Design the sequence.
């Protein structure tokens, strides 16, 4: 799974991980079916792997801004909660400027997302030295004709969601399904709970599905197919250019990403998967049994 948070960097717009997450247009088309991980004809369904992943973040390049150094780490956990996916993500980012100012930013992100894409509870907390504290929380619902977000923080308010909007796990499944079906790009509308404005637009470039084996430092992933992607995130209301944030990553067919390239505007960071730990499926999930018809 990709990272799914977009945090507010000290000198740049929010970024996302993926995460990250998730998704195509509504209307009952094949693309809409793939938004929930359904397979196109001849393509196997997307099966995600519950796991814990730890990434090292290192400075890749700077582009003339104030930042001269940056480092950090990110932990991502995807758990199978029977009828829902539980996502938890923690980010730690340290930067230093030309003037010697040091900033430490931390972000905690948690989501419980129904597997049918109909309901999501979310919480984002950003804090640290030199960073304004920010809390965003609430719940979102989706139906075939649209949905809404009910925010509880930072202030109670309601934002509508257009039909076809997907949540983070749905977005990830859509990317993998589209890549395996041979598509070159998709443009899903995403709600991930990292902004109080509602949904965001995404444009995903898919650089060709690669069958296994895959060259990777994580042996448990080498037997899986993969795709290199580039995801750009835009303000849903204005769709301004350039995007608010963009990230490159390599996805494996089980939803795990082993490398990230994150563009913060004035600097870029590389994320490298340091540890990958598969998590067990839940032992018992209750099954609703319908009473016999009378």
Sequence:
């Amino acid at each position: 799974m990709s990272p799914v948070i977009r945090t507010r960097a000290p000198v740049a717009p929010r970024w996302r991980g993926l995460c990250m997450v998730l998704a195509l247009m509504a209307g009952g088309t094949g693309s809409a079916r793939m938004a929930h991980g359904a397979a196109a004809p001849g393509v196997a369904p997307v099966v995600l792997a519950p796991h814990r992943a730890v990434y090292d973040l290192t400075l890749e390049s700077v582009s003339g801004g104030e930042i001269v150094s940056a480092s950090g780490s990110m932990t991502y956990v995807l758990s199978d909660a029977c009828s829902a996916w539980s996502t938890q993500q923690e980010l730690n980012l340290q930067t230093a400027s030309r003037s010697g100012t040091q900033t430490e930013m931390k972000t905690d992100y948690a989501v419980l997302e129904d597997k049918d894409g109909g309901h999501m509870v979310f919480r984002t907390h950003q804090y640290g030295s030199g960073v304004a504290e920010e809390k965003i929380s609430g719940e979102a619902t989706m139906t075939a004709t649209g949905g809404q977000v009910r925010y509880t923080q930072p202030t109670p308010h309601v934002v509508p969601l257009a039909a076809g909007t997907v949540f983070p796990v749905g977005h990830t499944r859509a990317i993998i399904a589209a890549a395996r079906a041979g598509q070159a790009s998709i443009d899903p509308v995403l709600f991930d709970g990292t902004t109080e404005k509602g949904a965001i637009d995404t444009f995903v470039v898919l650089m060709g599905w690669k069958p296994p084996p895959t060259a990777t430092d994580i042996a448990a992933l080498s037997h899986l197919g993969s795709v290199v992607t580039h995801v750009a995130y835009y303000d849903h209301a204005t769709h301004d250019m350039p995007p608010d944030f963009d990230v490159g990553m390599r996805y494996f067919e089980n939803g795990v990403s082993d490398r990230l390239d994150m563009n913060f505007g004035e600097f870029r960071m590389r994320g490298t998967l340091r540890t990958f730990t598969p998590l067990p499926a839940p032992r018992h999930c209750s099954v609703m049994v319908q009473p016999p018809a009378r």
Q: What stands out?
A: The CA atoms of residues 166 and 252 lie 20 Å apart. The two ends are 45 Å apart (CA to CA). The longest helix spans residues 168-180. Confidence is low (pLDDT under 50) at residues 1-5, 7-39, 288-294.
